[in-house]
Amino acid sequence: MLTAKLTGQLTLNALRRTHHGACHPCIYTLSNYNLHNERQRTRDGILSDFSVLRRGFYSQSAIRPSVRLRETQHYGRRPFSLSAATIVNAAPAPVQPYLRLMRLDKPIGTWLLYLPCTWSIALASDPGNLPHLGMLTLFGAGALLMRGAGCTINDMWDKDFDKKVARTATRPIASGEVSRMQALVFLGGQLSLALGVLLCLNYYSIALGAASLSLVVTYPLMKRITYWPQFVLGLTFNWGALLGWSAVKGCCDWSVCLPLYFSGVMWTLIYDTIYAHQDKEDDVKVGVKSTALRLQEQTKPWLSGFTVAMMSGLVAAGVNAEQTLPYYAVLSTVAIHLTHQIYTLDINKPEDCWKKFVSNRNLGLLLFLGIVAGNLWKERRETLLQNEELQR
């Protein structure tokens, strides 16, 4: 078995490693090495170990982070890491299943939920000013909680599906680490905290934010019903494009918010269709649907169309928000990035799909910086106009 080979290789490597050029050898110990061997072996309804490695890209590692090589020296020094997986692994054992249930060890989803909020907050900022740091922090906390709540709901709905796929069979609910009742209580805690964040906003934003809950609850069902669950995910994940503006301004300017929201939905269709191509074989086996299965070899033309629609929406939002040159310069870079992403995509290579998928975090951050720079440029432009009027 592949896992047995990995075990032998990792153990051999751990015994061979020494600290070159030092008086004292480094001592390496292999702790908590289990790799969920029993859960990831081929058995009734479970895919092969090769599939475990292929599907493992979503967790940003083909091997679960429970494989820990701890390095200690006589001087007590250890390698330092602040990765999300390291933080989860350092938590008390009883807490870890709940942190994995809310995907705290896989932060890419939180980023993709948070970034449309930052775009909207930045667009709503006064000319010449940076986005409100307190508002960005508040929405960051909200994104973390709501993404976690969405994952909990998803796993509660998909318990039976998850058991049939090796990658998801080790999820806390599917594996039995967390019962459905415990998950329900945990979900209540997450939603209560998220409500506390929402109540920090104005009344308009509270009502607008509450309206998104129906999408959060029903999205996990869509892959049973339609080949376009990514569209519903886009409606859900980009609600912050509406909420960020209303939180700053007190209400939505629909001439800005709707094009921005539309662009976010198109963006989700791009990156989540790419992501879905990793899972298409397993999706067929368990009987769920996705845009990857719907579009198949026509994926690239469709992604190109989504890109054109996304960029059109961003241009419209920028014009209506009176954005300036830096914003449009960054839009050009975003368009080039997406074009390269689609052109070089190999939908039959899961590792390439994963690489393209996670690159969208940087794309979202780039767009945020473009909005901020464009907003700061407004003050300079207004100052120049005022000086010209005075000279006249």
UniProtKB/TrEMBL annotation:
Principal subcellular localisation of the protein: membrane
Pathway: Cofactor biosynthesis; ubiquinone biosynthesis
A Pfam family that the UniProt record links to this protein: UbiA
Catalysed conversion reaction: all-trans-nonaprenyl diphosphate + 4-hydroxybenzoate = 4-hydroxy-3-(all-trans-nonaprenyl)benzoate + diphosphate; an all-trans-polyprenyl diphosphate + 4-hydroxybenzoate = a 4-hydroxy-3-(all-trans-polyprenyl)benzoate + diphosphate; all-trans-decaprenyl diphosphate + 4-hydroxybenzoate = 4-hydroxy-3-(all-trans-decaprenyl)benzoate + diphosphate
Signal sequence coordinates: none
GO biological process: isoprenoid biosynthetic process; ubiquinone biosynthetic process
Any GO CC annotation of this UniProt entry: mitochondrial inner membrane
Listed EC numbers: 2.5.1.39
Keyword annotations: Isoprene biosynthesis, Membrane, Mitochondrion, Mitochondrion inner membrane, Transferase, Transmembrane, Transmembrane helix, Ubiquinone biosynthesis
CDD domains the record matches: PT_UbiA_COQ2 (cd13959)
GO molecular function list: 4-hydroxybenzoate polyprenyltransferase activity
Alphabetical list of InterPro entries matching this protein: HB_polyprenyltransferase-like, Prenyltransferase, UbiA_prenyltransferase, UbiA_prenylTrfase_CS, UbiA_sf
Mode of membrane association: Multi-pass membrane protein
Membrane-crossing segments per the record: 178-197, 302-319, 325-345, 357-377
Listed PROSITE patterns: UBIA (PS00943)
Cofactor: Mg(2+)
Statement: the UniProt record of this protein carries the keyword Phosphoprotein: no
Subcellular location: Membrane; Mitochondrion inner membrane
Domain of life of the organism encoding this protein: Eukaryota
Family statement: Belongs to the UbiA prenyltransferase family.
Protein function: Catalyzes the prenylation of para-hydroxybenzoate (PHB) with an all-trans polyprenyl group. Mediates the second step in the final reaction sequence of coenzyme Q (CoQ) biosynthesis, which is the condensation of the polyisoprenoid side chain with PHB, generating the first membrane-bound Q intermediate.
Name the record gives this protein: 4-hydroxybenzoate polyprenyltransferase, mitochondrial
Organism this protein belongs to: Scomber scombrus (Atlantic mackerel)
